[in-house]
Structure of ATP-dependent DNA helicase:
Amino acid sequence: MGGTEDVMQELLNVEFELQDVQDEIKRLLDKQEKLYERQSELKAVLESYQDLEKSEQDNAAPQAENWSGSFEWDNEADDIRFNIFGIPSYRANQREIINAVMSGRDVLVIMAAGGGKSLCYQLPALLRDGIALVISPLLSLIQDQVMGLTALGIPASMLTSTTNKEDEKYIYKALEKGDGDLRVLYVTPEKVSKSKRFVSKLEKCHHAGRLSLISIDEAHCCSQWGHDFRPDYKNLGILKTQFPNVPVIALTATATKKVQLDLMEMLKIPKCVKFVSTVNRPNLFYMVRDKSSVGKTVINDIADFIQGSYTNNESGIVYCFSRKECEQVAKELRERGVSADHYHADMDVNARERVHMRWSNSKLQVIVGTVAFGMGINKPDVRFVIHHSLGKSMETYYQESGRAGRDGLPSECLLYFRPADVPRQSSMVFYENSGLQNLYDMVRYCQSKKECRRGAFFKHFAEPLQDCNGMCDNCAFSCDVKEIDATGHAKAVVSLLQEIQEMDQRATMLQLVEKFKVKNKKVGFELKKDELEQLVIQLILDRVLKEEFSHTAYATNAYVTTGPLAKHVLHGKKNIMLEVTSGHKSSTSVAKSSKRSRYSGLEVELDNLRKELSSLHGGIFPHSILSTQQIGMLCSQKPETTEQLEKLIGKLKTEKYGDKILEVIGKHEPDEEQHGNDPSENEEEPETSVNRTSKRTKNKNVVVIESSEDDE
Ligand SMILES: Nc1ncnc2c1ncn2[C@@H]1O[C@H](COP(=O)(O)OP(=O)(O)OP(=O)(O)O)[C@@H](O)[C@H]1O
Ligand SMILES: [Mg+2]
């Protein structure tokens, strides 16, 4: 009988090994498929590179161009920049881009959100004679821009589905005959691809030498590889064909190499000068907080965050996972005294627009939105973007969080993470191309308690690392992160899952954790529930476990099963380390350290003045009247005469609003400065948004924002 036992034993071993081999084969096949995919991608990219190089050689590259040198339009450009736009100095690449456009070159601009792309075509539009055509994908973006230019006294119009007959007539006359003073014309891409009438008028304008430049904003919409593909953008190449000598400037905030090449091909600008700026947004402070499983606690925390740090009605966005959640969160924030309203795709257009408008005019502090609240957001002074749950990829998180601080002033990006939110997202994205991979990158960002958050973006966008300057929680706050060896737990989790599977059952992440706790009660495994959840997520990221999906009529459910590397853990070939915090980097400590001072009295008064003027001047946004940065300057310099004021905000704004501004500054009593609850605040220069920036000092890797409220 011993023989049978031996044979059975060997059979078992062989079956075990076979299973191993099969798993390995499956893993390799998976890998092969991914590599094939990448291979074809790379081949495509290589081909376009070669095409590009060839065309560059064919066109015998001109001598190295120095776009930062001096040009004949320098003085006029400086004058318009300062006296009309009220912009004291150029930001990175702006001047160079303007010079390239002015030299008649086609230009491709990749510049982060809020980098100041608009100026790059608006200023040349004023420097060159004639009318500049701007293509922009969304009505709301166009309206914002036209309103902004009008506020500066620049003749700008738009031709869209909402344009009335009279305006249309005026625009067509301007194009055809050069009547009127129109300088910047905004249209949606549909006008170019669908309206023959429009294109023929444009031809006449060009024929008379009056088409000064063509700007294609949000140019990533051209590419199917981009995130906001718009079919009508695909036809914009005809503009270069029809008007070969008019400079085209294409602008976007994010474009991978592949998207850039795609753009150049589709817009027919192979010889364009390319300006790529960093993805880094140095003024954004990134942080992730553990999210309580109790909904109310999360809302309390968000309300505390807003009411603790943003007492002057500073604008913010809260992103939620679903429409229902949006409404719920907005309602609960309101109940806690935060001025908030929801925004999602289920609302009718007018209701949505109303919410957007109230927010843009700073009458509503917080929009609680789904991802539907997206591309059309042009508000420069959004001070915080909170994610109530994680998004589906690093790319979308970069974009959504990037809506904060477009004016360059310090702003915060806070994400609430709990492992249980992962299956909610994964069951939505698993069918997308690389959907799970993208989500898991995002989860890695959230789970990490040590790595620089900014570094994760550099890695994601394949850019060299830059210093974070203590502008993320992991760099700024030292907290005790321990790496514990969770290999034992991991083994137990895998075995439990195998048992479940052998009984032909399956488990969601939460069920698995529940079962684990019940089963191992006596053994005294010391991990807490949320740490166990964290472990399961870690195991999924490490491919020890994997998610599987099954559909019902109403939903897709995510289950956890053993993954390709499960055996490695069982056989002791793979160790699992888990990052846990002991000394809490608790939410309150984060909130305290990043809490900023209240506005000074004068800041509040000037803020009120811009709101007042904004409603007086019908439809001009407060931030178009005075930017937060300008208010900061006014408070620290306190100009007394028109000449002094002009030096700070330029001629145009001084002419329009100077008297009122000087009046407010003149009437302001210095002792009114005492606005916060700490008397010592009064001893220094009043707090302004500008010097607030410089008050963020780096001290032993800890960012300190001096604040009266810290001393309570
Ligand atoms: N050189 C500058 N100095 C100070 N502020 C500037 C400068 N250039 C632009 N700005 C301001 O920065 C804000 C963002 O500019 P803009 O709207 O052009 O950004 P963008 O690059 O188009 O961003 P997005 O990708 O989000 O559309 C605006 O309020 C603008 O007035
Ligand atoms: Mg823009």
